[in-house]
Design brief:
- The structure is a single chain.
- By secondary structure, the chain is an alpha+beta fold.
- It folds into two domains: about 80 residues, no CATH class; about 240 residues, Fumarylacetoacetate hydrolase, domain 2 (Alpha-Beta Complex).
- Helix content is about 25%, strand content about 25%.
- It has nine helices and 20 strands.
- A six-stranded mixed sheet has the order 7-6-18-11-12-15. A five-stranded antiparallel sheet has the order 4-3-2-1-5, with no helix packed on it. It has a five-stranded mixed sheet with strand order 9-20-19-16-17, with no helix packed on it.
- Helix 4 packs antiparallel against helix 5.
- The longest helix is centred in the middle third of the chain and has 18 residues.
- The chain is globular, with a radius of gyration of 21 Å.
Length: about 350
């Protein structure tokens, strides 16, 4: 770790495996250090949340040399020599905001012809714009839940599903909850946000519709919760280092070609609104992960979905970069599909 890295005072929190076991780490630049010698009470990253600010202060002092004894306890190694795991495994369901970027909604309305059957593409776009501007003014966020078992690391391979050929990418800003809250006001949300991370919410588009259940219509469970469908990380960047989460750039490259490139200011409902809404229904707990929706540029818009051998690189300003290779499907017919044969 260089003096310039130390001078930045910015660090992330991650979880890594060095081959001899999993450990919580502080990350600066491209190096990581096991936190357990410095903070013996911290066996995993989730343990940091109990005294989040105090623990962050101790880490900062050890990094910048203010705590010389603590500095000597941090043994730095290249993250290239480590396996990056999800920085903090969610303790409960993932809270996911759907249809929360204006331009993304308009693109999807055109791509999937969500509107009048006789409407032109421009009419579909314009009518969706009117509807969503009204929703922003007087509507509520839409939140569904994902499973922690679908989470994988920022550099892990992702696997195509065994059914369908339209696995889609959706890079999103993830928010880690640091304190328990219920019915919190939007202007108090900053008190419960621990930090931010990158999440790619992969979606098997073929599996979304449920024509056999027209009254319900969609099935997010099977479309979004298969193993490796939530690449997360590589780190959690503490909220103290992200002064304006509405000014972050989200980018996704597919085999080096830009597919998503937007700012988080295109959110219909901002982070305080999302957390206030979610907490009006459920009690949020430390370690809960809320993902805030994906901007424009998904595969549905491009007419190009993930294929074996593809490489996705997802970046959000100040939060690092994910890199995931796409593996072939296992080739096993899903039991629920086999039963229809």
């Amino acid at each position: 770790m260089t003096d310039a890295d130390r001078a930045s005072d910015i660090f992330g929190i991650g979880t890594f495996d060095a081959g001899a076991g999993v450990f919580p780490a502080v990350v600066v630049g491209d190096e990581a250090a096991d936190l357990r010698p410095l903070l013996p009470h911290v066996a995993r990253t989730g343990d940091l949340l109990a005294e989040w600010d105090t623990n962050l202060d101790a880490i900062a002092a050890a990094i910048d040399g203010g705590d010389e004894a603590g500095e000597r306890l941090l043994e730095w190694r290249s993250i290239r020599d480590l396996h990056a795991l999800p920085p903090m495994q969610p303790v409960g369901p993932i809270l996911a905001a759907g249809a929360n970027y204006r331009e993304h909604i308009l693109q999807m309305s055109v791509a999937h012809r969500l509107g009048r059957e006789d409407a032109t593409e421009q009419e579909l776009w314009d009518e969706a714009a009117i509807e969503n501007d009204q929703r922003r003014r007087s509507g509520d966020p839409y939140i569904w839940t994902g499973l922690p078992s679908a989470v994988c690391g920022a550099f892990d391979d992702v696997q195509l599903p065994d059914y369908g050929d339209d696995l889609d990418w959706e890079v999103e800003l993830g928010v880690v909850i640091g304190r328990s809250c219920h019915r919190i006001a939007a202007d108090e949300v900053h008190e419960v946000v621990a930090g931010y991370t990158i999440v790619n919410d992969l979606t098997a588009r073929t599996l979304v519709p449920r024509p056999d259940m027209a009254l319900i219509g969609t099935d997010w469970f099977r479309a979004k919760n298969q193993p490796t469908f939530f690449p997360t990380g590589p780190v959690i960047v503490p909220a103290r280092f992200v002064p304006d989460p509405t000014a972050l750039r989200i980018r996704l490259l597919l085999n080096g070609e830009v597919k998503q490139d937007s700012l988080t200011d295109d959110l219909l409902f901002d982070i305080p609104s999302l957390i206030a809404y979610a907490s009006s229904v459920a009690r949020l707990q430390p370690g809960d992960l809320l993902i805030t929706g994906s901007p424009a540029g998904n595969g549905s818009h491009w007419g190009r979905f993930l294929q074996e051998g593809d490489v996705m690189e997802a970046t959000i300003t100040g939060l690092g970069t994910q890199r995931n290779r796409v593996l072939a499907a296992r080739g096993e017919q899903p039991p629920w599909q086999a039963s229809r044969a």
